[in-house]
C-alpha cells in the first residue's frame, strides 16, 4: 500500500491568496498607521501578574499612541503604575505592589496616529479572573432506596472564566461513571437508579479554575443505599431537561451541547435524531454515554428541532429541543488599504453578515465620518466609500464598525495618496526550484503609484510571455500550472507606470520528482525472526534525499533491534509488539514520497486451558477446552493425546484431531484403561505446548474386541510349522489375564483342529509335519472376562527341503567376445520340495586362448526367475575358455548342479600397451619404446602410432599415422623439427580392431651437446653431488653474511647487488641443455635456500630455487653437471627449454 502526498494545491492557493491580498507599502515611503498587534477584545487577566495591554502599529513616520478608558482619554502620566513601552503603544500596569487588579477593570481602546491619519484598536475589555471559595455548608447523609433515582448537586461558585467541574473521592480518584451514573453539563451527578454498591461517604465535587490553576472542593456528600423493600421497575422519565419541549440558542462558530439524562429501571438507553434534517456527521459527536450531543463550529444549517429518546423494556420518553442559531458579525469582505496616485479613483468596501444583520458605521481617523472634514473626492454609500480624482494630502485612515447585539467587528483601512515610480521588491536573481508536473510561482512583488503594469519575459526576451501555460496574477506573480523541464530557465519581470520602469531577474529550476520505486511490502513473520522492509527511491540528482521510518504514524521504538538504512529497515528478532504499519518517508527540500506496509507477527498458539470431561460412558467421554491465544495465525486443528496410566504411564499417544473451529470432542475409549487427556493447538506456525492434562478417567474391563493381527504359518525346517502373530497391546487386551488360543489343521486332510493356549509369546512351533504342505491356522485372544471374536483362518505351509533334481538340456550360445547366453529346461515340480524361487548359473574363466596367458578367474554366478529358461552372461573376457553349470533353488537353498558345459569366447580388441615411452631424442629424431598389452584379447596383428606437433599455446598440428609390426618393441622417428614438442598416441590391435591408446609427449633438442640419456635426474649421483655443493655454498654464504654484518662491512655478493640493484631471474641461453623425457615430478622446481642481501632469511622460501640460479644470464652447467657462475643483474624472458625441464 502506498500513501502519496497531495500535490499541495490547497496550500498553493492559500499562499497565492495571501500574496494577492497583501498590499505592502515600502517602509521608506510615507504611509498612515496600521495596527499590527493588539490584545483580544475580552481580556481576562491574572490578579497575581502585571496587566499588559498590547497595541503595536507601523507607519511612516512612526506613529505615536494614545488610549481611552471607558470612552474618555486615559492620561497615563497621572498614574505611576501605568507605563507605555518605548516605540510602542503597549501599556504595562504594575500591580506587584499590592494594588488590586479589579481597580483597572474597564474598556480600553488604543489610537495610533501620525501626520497622515489615525488607526484605532478594538475596544479591549479588561476583567480580573476570579476563583471564589465554596460556601461552608454541611450535608446530612442521603438515604436512598435501591433502584430509585438520585441527583447529587454540585452548584460550583461563579468564576471568571467558569470552572471545570468533576467528581472524585477523598483519595483524588475519579468516581466511575457509566450509562447509569454520569455527570451533567451543570456539574451535578445523576443516578438513573442506585445500587447498594453506590453507598459511600465521600462524594466530592471539585471545581478547577483554569486561569489561576486553582482547585476548589465542595464538602463531601455521604450516600447510604438501603434495600428495605423491592422497587418496581419503571419506564424512563427525564431528569434533565424537564417537560417535553425546550429551546436553546447558540452563536455561529461556537459549540452546541444538548443534554438528556433519564431516570428509569432498568437503566434507559438514550438516542438522538434531528427532526428537520440530518445531524452533521463530521462535526457531531455523542458523549457522556450518548446523553450529550455535541456539535462543533455551528452554522446556520444546524438550526432546527432535535429529539432525544430514552427507553427501556417498560417504555420510552421523548424530548424535543428547538435550536436557533444567531451570529455575531463576520466578514464577507473586510476593507483593505488603498494606494492611489493623484487624480486616481478607488473604493474601500466593508461587507459583513450576522444575525441580526449588522449595522455599518464609518469613521475617519477615529471620528465619525459625518464629523470628519469634508472631502469632495469622497462619497459614502452604505458599506462602501468611493474616492474620485483624489488629491495629494487626502491620505487618511478609515474605520468600519459592523455590529449587532451579539458583537462587533472593527477594521482599519487607509487611503494613501502617493506618486511613485515602480520598484520590484522581490530579491534579484532569486532561484525557484519546483518539482516536475507541479505548479510554479515566480514572484514579482512590486510597488508603484499609479499601480505599475507587470510583464514577463523568458531567457532572451524575444517576446512577452502570454497565454498557456502561464497565468499572470494581479500582484505580479507568474504561475505555471504544470511545470516541465522546458520551463526551466531565466525569467525577467518588468514593472512600468507613467513615472518609470523597473525590472528583476529570477531563475526557475524544474526537478525530477522523488518517487519510491520499490515500496515496502506486507510481511507476515514469526516471532524471533528477522524482517526486512525495502524502500528503493529515485530522486533528482541535484537534490539530497533523507529517508525516515515511522511505526503507526510515530517514531520508531528506541531499540537496537531496529536498523534503519538508506533504502531499507531491518528488525531483528521481532516480537508481537513490533506488529503495525511501517511507513518509509523520503524527503527532499522540495517534495516527499511515502509508502507503507503492515507487519503481522505470528507465533505458535498458546496451549489450550480449562480441560473438562463430561458425559461419561462405558467407552466414551466428552472433552471440552478453552483455546489459547492464536498469535495472529488462525488455529487449523486441535490434536488430542492420551496417556494410559495403567499400561504405558508417561507415554502420550495421539487419539484424534478436530477442526480449529471446535472446542469439544467426543472421545471413543477402550475398556480397562486409566486415561488422561491433553490438547495441542496447531496454526500456520506450528503446534502449541501441550495443555495441562485432564483428570484421570478410568474404564471397566471387558472381553477382547479383537484378535491378534498378522497371523502367519511357515516352516523353518523341512518337518515343522511356525505360527506367528502380532500380540495385542495392553490397551487392546480390554482386561487382565490375556492369553492366546493357537489352532491348526492340515488343509484338505484333517477335519478337527488341534489347539494350544499360550501367554506372553508371539509364536508357536508345530513339529513333525510333512514337507511343504498347506495348513489352516487361527489365533484367538481371551482374558479373564471371556474370549475374543471368532478369528478367520489363514493358509500357511510347513517347511521346505532342498530341490532334488538339476536342470536339464543345458546349452551355451556365444553371442560375442564378452556375452554368452545359457539355455536350460525346468526341473520337475515335485523335485522342488518348496516354492521355486529361480535358477542360478555358476561360471568361471578357466584360461586364456593366448599361449602367454593362462589366467584363471574367480567363479561368478547370475540368478534368474523361476519362469526363466534362458539367461545372458555379461562382461566375459575375449579369447578365453569358460565353464558353467546350472542349479534350481528355493528358500531352503540350491539343488544339485547340472553337468558342466565349456565354451570359448572369440577375439576382441586388445587392452592398452604395458608401457610406452620416449627413450632417446636428437635434433630431428625421437626413439620410442613399448611393450605388448597385458590383456591381448586375441592375436596381436600390430600397433598403430599417431603423432602431431604441439606449440606453447596448446595448438596442435596435422596428425601423422604409421602402422608397426606386432613383433616390434621400438621405433625411431626421423626428419622431425628441432626444438619442437610432439604428442604421441600409441595402441595395439587385433583382427577385431585397435584397443585404447596411451599418450606421451616429448621435445626434440636445440643442440647436439645437450643430448643426454633419459634418466631420473633425482637418482643420479652427479645431481645429488650438485645439490650437496649448493647447500654447502649457501651455508658458507650465511656464515660470511653473519660475520660481515656484525663487523658492519659488506661481502662480495652484497656489493654486486648494490651495484646492480635487485636482479631479475635470467633465462638460459638457447644452446643450454634440455631433456627428452620428463615426468610431472621433474617439472617441480628444485628448492634451495638463499640469503637475501639484507642478511635476513625470509619466512617463505617459495621464490628460492635452482631456477633462480639456472635462469641467471651468466650461469651454466658443465657437462659433468657442476655449477658455475654468479649473481647477475640482467633480466629477460625465461627460456622455453629450461621451462620444459622445470
Automatic annotation (TrEMBL):
Stored SMART domains: FN3 (SM00060), IG (SM00409), IGc2 (SM00408)
Record's subcellular location: Cell membrane; Cell projection, Growth cone
Upper taxonomic lineage: Eukaryota, Metazoa, Chordata, Craniata, Vertebrata
Protein name per its UniProtKB record: Neural cell adhesion molecule L1
Gene3D superfamilies on file: Immunoglobulins (2.60.40.10)
Membrane topology, from the record: Single-pass type I membrane protein
Keywords noted in UniProt: Cell adhesion, Cell membrane, Cell projection, Disulfide bond, Glycoprotein, Immunoglobulin domain, Membrane, Repeat, Signal, Transmembrane, Transmembrane helix
Keyword Transmembrane on entry: yes
Pfam family, one: I-set
Organism of derivation: Phoxinus phoxinus (Eurasian minnow)
Amino acid at each position: 500500500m502506498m500513501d502519496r502526498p497531495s500535490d499541495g494545491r490547497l496550500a498553493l492557493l492559500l499562499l497565492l491568496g495571501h500574496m494577492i491580498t497583501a498590499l505592502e507599502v515600502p517602509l521608506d515611503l510615507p504611509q498612515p498607521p496600521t495596527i499590527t498587534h493588539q490584545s483580544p477584545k475580552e481580556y481576562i487577566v491574572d490578579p497575581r501578574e502585571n496587566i499588559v495591554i498590547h497595541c503595536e502599529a507601523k507607519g511612516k513616520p512612526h506613529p505615536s499612541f494614545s488610549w481611552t478608558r471607558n470612552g474618555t482619554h486615559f492620561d497615563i502620566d497621572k498614574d505611576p503604575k501605568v507605563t507605555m513601552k518605548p516605540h510602542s503603544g503597549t501599556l504595562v500596569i504594575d500591580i506587584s505592589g499590592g494594588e488590586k487588579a479589579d481597580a483597572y477593570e474597564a474598556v480600553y481602546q488604543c489610537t495610533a496616529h501620525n501626520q497622515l491619519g489615525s488607526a484605532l484598536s478594538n475596544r479591549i475589555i479588561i476583567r480580573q479572573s476570579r476563583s471564589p471559595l465554596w460556601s461552608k455548608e454541611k450535608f446530612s447523609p442521603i438515604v436512598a432506596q435501591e433502584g430509585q433515582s438520585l441527583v447529587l448537586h454540585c452548584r460550583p461558585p461563579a468564576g471568571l472564566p467558569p470552572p471545570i467541574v468533576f467528581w472524585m473521592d477523598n483519595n483524588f480518584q475519579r468516581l466511575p461513571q457509566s450509562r447509569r451514573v454520569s455527570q451533567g453539563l451543570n456539574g451535578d451527578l445523576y443516578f438513573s437508579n442506585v445500587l447498594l454498591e453506590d453507598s459511600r461517604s465521600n462524594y466530592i465535587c471539585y471545581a478547577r479554575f483554569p486561569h489561576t490553576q486553582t482547585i476548589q472542593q465542595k464538602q463531601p456528600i455521604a450516600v447510604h443505599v438501603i434495600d428495605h423493600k423491592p422497587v418496581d421497575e419503571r419506564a424512563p422519565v427525564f431528569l434533565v431537561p424537564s417537560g417535553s419541549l425546550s429551546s436553546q440558542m447558540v452563536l455561529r462558530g461556537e459549540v452546541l451541547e444538548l443534554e438528556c439524562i433519564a431516570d428509569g429501571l432498568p437503566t434507559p438507553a438514550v438516542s438522538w435524531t434531528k427532526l428537520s434534517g440530518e445531524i452533521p456527521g463530521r462535526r457531531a459527536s455523542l458523549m457522556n454515554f450518548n446523553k450529550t450531543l455535541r456539535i462543533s463550529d455551528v452554522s446556520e444549517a444546524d438550526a432546527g428541532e432535535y429529539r432525544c429518546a430514552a427507553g427501556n423494556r417498560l417504555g420510552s420518553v421523548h424530548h424535543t429541543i428547538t435550536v436557533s442559531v444567531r451570529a455575531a458579525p463576520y466578514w464577507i469582505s473586510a476593507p483593505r488599504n488603498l494606494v492611489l496616485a493623484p487624480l486616481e479613483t478607488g473604493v474601500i468596501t466593508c461587507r459583513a453578515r450576522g444575525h441580526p444583520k449588522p449595522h455599518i458605521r464609518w469613521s475617519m481617523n477615529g471620528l465619525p465620518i459625518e464629523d470628519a472634514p469634508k472631502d469632495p473626492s469622497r462619497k459614502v454609500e452604505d458599506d462602501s466609500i468611493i474616492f474620485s480624482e483624489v488629491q495629494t494630502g487626502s491620505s487618511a485612515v478609515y474605520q468600519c464598525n459592523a455590529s449587532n447585539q451579539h458583537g462587533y467587528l472593527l477594521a482599519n483601512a487607509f487611503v494613501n495618496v502617493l506618486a511613485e515610480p515602480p520598484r520590484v521588491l522581490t530579491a534579484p536573481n532569486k532561484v525557484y526550484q519546483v518539482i516536475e508536473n507541479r505548479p510554479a510561482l515566480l514572484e514579482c512583488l512590486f510597488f508603484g503609484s499609479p499601480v505599475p503594469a507587470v510583464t514577463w519575459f523568458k531567457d532572451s526576451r524575444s517576446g512577452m510571455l502570454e497565454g498557456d501555460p502561464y497565468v499572470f496574477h494581479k500582484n505580479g506573480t507568474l504561475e505555471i500550472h504544470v511545470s516541465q523541464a522546458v520551463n526551466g530557465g531565466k525569467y525577467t519581470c518588468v514593472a512600468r507606470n507613467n513615472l518609470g520602469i523597473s525590472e528583476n531577474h529570477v531563475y526557475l529550476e524544474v526537478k525530477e520528482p522523488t518517487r519510491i520505486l520499490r515500496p515496502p511490502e506486507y510481511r507476515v513473520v514469526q516471532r524471533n525472526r528477522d524482517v526486512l522492509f525495502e524502500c528503493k527511491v529515485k530522486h533528482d540528482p541535484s537534490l539530497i534525499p533523507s529517508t525516515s521510518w515511522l511505526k503507526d504514524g510515530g517514531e520508531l521504538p528506541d531499540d537496537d533491534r531496529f536498523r534503519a538504512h538508506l533504502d531499507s529497515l531491518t528488525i531483528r528478532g521481532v516480537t508481537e509488539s513490533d506488529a503495525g504499519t511501517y511507513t518509509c518517508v523520503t524527503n527532499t527540500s522540495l517534495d516527499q514520497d511515502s509508502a507503507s506496509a503492515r507487519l503481522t507477527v505470528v507465533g505458535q498458539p498458546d496451549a489450550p486451558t480449562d480441560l473438562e470431561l463430561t458425559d461419561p460412558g462405558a467407552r466414551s467421554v466428552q472433552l471440552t477446552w478453552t483455546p489459547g491465544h492464536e498469535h495472529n495465525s488462525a488455529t487449523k486443528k486441535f490434536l488430542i493425546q492420551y496417556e494410559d496410566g495403567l499400561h504405558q504411564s508417561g507415554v502420550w499417544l495421539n487419539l484424534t484431531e478436530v477442526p480449529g473451529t471446535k472446542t469439544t470432542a467426543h472421545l471413543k475409549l477402550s475398556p480397562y484403561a486409566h486415561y488422561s487427556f491433553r490438547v495441542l493447538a496447531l496454526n500456520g506456525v506450528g503446534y502449541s505446548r501441550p495443555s495441562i492434562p485432564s483428570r484421570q478417567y478410568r474404564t471397566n474391563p471387558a472381553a477382547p474386541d479383537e484378535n491378534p493381527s498378522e497371523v502367519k504359518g511357515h516352516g523353518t525346517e523341512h518337518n515343522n510349522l511356525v505360527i506367528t502373530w502380532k500380540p495385542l497391546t495392553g490397551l487392546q487386551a480390554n482386561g487382565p489375564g490375556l492369553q492366546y488360543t493357537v489352532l491348526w489343521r492340515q488343509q484338505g486332510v484333517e477335519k478337527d483342529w488341534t489347539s494350544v493356549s499360550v501367554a506372553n509369546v508371539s509364536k508357536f512351533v508345530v513339529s513333525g509335519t510333512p514337507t511343504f504342505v498347506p495348513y489352516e491356522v487361527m489365533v484367538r485372544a481371551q482374558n479373564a472376562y471371556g474370549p475374543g471374536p471368532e478369528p478367520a483362518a489363514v493358509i500357511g505351509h510347513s517347511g521346505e527341503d532342498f530341490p532334488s533334481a538339476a536342470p536339464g538340456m543345458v546349452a551355451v550360445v556365444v553371442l560375442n567376445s564378452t556375452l554368452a547366453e545359457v539355455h536350460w529346461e525346468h526341473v520337475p515340480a515335485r523335485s522342488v520340495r518348496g516354492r521355486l524361487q529361480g535358477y542360478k548359473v555358476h561360471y568361471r574363466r578357466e584360461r586364456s586362448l593366448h599361449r602367454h596367458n593362462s589366467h584363471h578367474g574367480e567363479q561368478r554366478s547370475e540368478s534368474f526367475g523361476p519362469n526363466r529358461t534362458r539367461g545372458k552372461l555379461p562382461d566375459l573376457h575375449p579369447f578365453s575358455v569358460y565353464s558353467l553349470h546350472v542349479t534350481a533353488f528355493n528358500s531352503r537353498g540350491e539343488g544339485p548342479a547340472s553337468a558342466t558345459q565349456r565354451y570359448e569366447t572369440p577375439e576382441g580388441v586388445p587392452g592398452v600397451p604395458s608401457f610406452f615411452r620416449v627413450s632417446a631424442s636428437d635434433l630431428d629424431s625421437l626413439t620410442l619404446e613399448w611393450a605388448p598389452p597385458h590383456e591381448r584379447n586375441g592375436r596381436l596383428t600390430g600397433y598403430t602410432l599417431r603423432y602431431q606437433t604441439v606449440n606453447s599455446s596448446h595448438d596442435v598440428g596435422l596428425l601423422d599415422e604409421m602402422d608397426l609390426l606386432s613383433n616390434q618393441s621400438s621405433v625411431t622417428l626421423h626428419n622431425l623439427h628441432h626444438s619442437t614438442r610432439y604428442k604421441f598416441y600409441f595402441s595395439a590391435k587385433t583382427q577385431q580392431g585397435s584397443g585404447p591408446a596411451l599418450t606421451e609427449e616429448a621435445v626434440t633438442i636445440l643442440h647436439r651437446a645437450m643430448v643426454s640419456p633419459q634418466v631420473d635426474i633425482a637418482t643420479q649421483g652427479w645431481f645429488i653431488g650438485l645439490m650437496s655443493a649448493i647447500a654447502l655454498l649457501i651455508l658458507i654464504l650465511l656464515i660470511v653474511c653473519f660475520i660481515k654484518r656484525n663487523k658492519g662491512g659488506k661481502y662480495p655478493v652484497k656489493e654486486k647487488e648494490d651495484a646492480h640493484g635487485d636482479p631479475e631471474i635470467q633465462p638460459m641461453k638457447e644452446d643450454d641443455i634440455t631433456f627428452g623425457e620428463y615426468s610431472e615430478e621433474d617439472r617441480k622446481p628444485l628448492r634451495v635456500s638463499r640469503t637475501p642481501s639484507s642478511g635476513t632469511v625470509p619466512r617463505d622460501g617459495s621464490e628460492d630455487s635452482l631456477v633462480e640460479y639456472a635462469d641467471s644470464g651468466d650461469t651454466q652447467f658443465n657437462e659433468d653437471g657442476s655449477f658455475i657462475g654468479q649473481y647477475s643483474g640482467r633480466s629477460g624472458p625465461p627460456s622455453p627449454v629450461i621451462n620444459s625441464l622445470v
